[in-house]
Amino acid sequence: MTEIKKKPIKIVETVLRDAHQSLLATRMSTEQMLPIADKMDQVGYHAVECWGGATFDTSLRFLKEDPWERLRKLKEHFKHTRLQMLLRGQNLLGYSHYSDDVVDYFCRKAVANGIDNIRMMDCLNDIRNLETSMKATKAEGGRAIAALVYTLGDAYTLDYWKDVAKRIEDMGADELGIKDMAGLLTPYRAGELVRALKETVHIPVAMHTHYTAGVASMTYLKSVEAGCDSIDCAISPLALGTSQPATEVMAETFRGTPYDPGLNQELLGEIADYFETIRQEAIESGLLSTKVLGVNIKTLQYQVPGAMMTNLDALQKGAGQEYKYRQVLEEIPRVRRDFGEPPLVTPSSQIVGTQAVMNVICGERYQIILNESKRLLEGQFGQTVKEADPEVKKKIVGDEPCISCRPADLIKPQLAQFERECSPWKQQDEDVLTYAMFPDVAKTYFEYREAQQTGIDLSVADLQSGAYPV
Ligand code: CO
Asked: How far is ligand 1, taken at its centre, from the CA of residue 73, in Å?
């Protein structure tokens, strides 16, 4: 075994993206971010994750903010620190594949507006779905971090992960990520995985996990000892629970060791004070539920991401079927097996989760078949690690043709069409991409923006209540 070099660990701060997505339903506004941005820029973070995931959708839908504008404003403050985003490969920030011209344009615009690192992943670990975003990111001068979406199952052996990692490196990624969205990586398992990957690739390895099952700080400790290059942390008031391990705790853990990240602890304290106020307000308003702050070991048992469990909870309540919650949790792994054992992350988590709910509510499995389930089994999202269950596949897909190529090879260019459809509202090039991601939400936002500009007073509450004609 090769000796592992001990070196300072790099810290990626997630408070402006994953932490508030995990704890505050992604409701942190630009106005709440900007006053602390200059201090954050002085800490010595490797990068600050601030965009992508649900931030884009939520800022348009609920905060009535232009996500591009947020990015440009953040960039004015982060002069020394790289800004990072999360991208779902060929899905971009949406839920199904886009044509290559849209993916290319989006990545270029993200970098042009201030993103330095694009961390990209595919929900099936089918890395063909990362080709276009990786090429575009690099062409625009951004850093392409391609992440393995971590999950468990017999197909997911160390050899499997090493093989995907090698192919990611060969594709030209600047960095390899491990994205453990469900917090399934226990400390020793993480150490073993990181060691195996470090022996396989030469590019840096970044670790991302969630605190949900309560083991994440130990997972980072073992990962760092195994040679991992960076870890994702959140400043303490918005850490733990379904979020990341706390930045200050990890910095203290490694202080005085060869792994010391060298962050400015005094500034970290001031930043924590700032976010403490936001935490308190969120607890008082009910936005931050103490339920998500505890340890939820069930995530290890059911292997279901915390966010997905919360969504299911709501869905079950909506259907007036709370008592079936448990049955759904048990149905999820079965559906996942039927579908070829995909990892559970957007959009596969929604597809598997919703299909599981349908199966339980109907009382008969696959009596109602989601259109997305059909598309997944047809290969429209790419290749799953295993074949789907033949009987289930027959029931869902029937005699329709399946595909085995990279799905986007069959998607004709879409950008011109989006340009045409968006033209009545377009005020900047980026609007077309906003429209392409979420057409309905974008239209509502564009009309709100116009109304603001013409002096018509519309409150956000009016819009949410649907009082505003769309
Ligand atoms: Co995450």
From this structure: 24
- pLDDT at position 459 is 58
Cβ neighbour number for residue 448 with a 10 Å cutoff? 19
Lowest-confidence segment of 137-141, 199-203, 268-272, 328-332 by average pLDDT: 328-332
- Tell me the CA–centroid distance for residue 120 and ligand 1, in Å: 12
Give which of 291, 249, 266, 246 is closest to 23, Cα–Cα. Answer: 291
Compute, in angstroms, the gap from residue 15 CA to the centroid of ligand 1: 11
Q: Which residues contact 266 (CB under 8 A, 6 or more apart)?
A: none
Pairing of strands 143-149, 205-209: unpaired
Alpha helices in 186-243 (DSSP H): 187-200, 216-225
**Residue 303: per-residue pLDDT:** 75
pLDDT at residue 467, rounded to an integer: 38
Q: How far apart are CA 445 and CA 438, in angstroms?
A: 10
Who surrounds ion ligand 1 at CB < 5 A? 18, 181
pLDDT at 469 over 90: no
Residue 453 falls in which region: left (phi positive, over 0), alpha (psi -120 to 50) or beta: alpha
Cα 284 from Cα 189, distance rounded (Å): 38
Q: What global pTM score does this model have? A: 0.93
Dihedrals φ, ψ of 209, to 5°? -140, 180
- Quote the ligand 1 centre to 275 CA distance (angstroms): 19
Residue given tokens 């990520």 in the structure block? 177
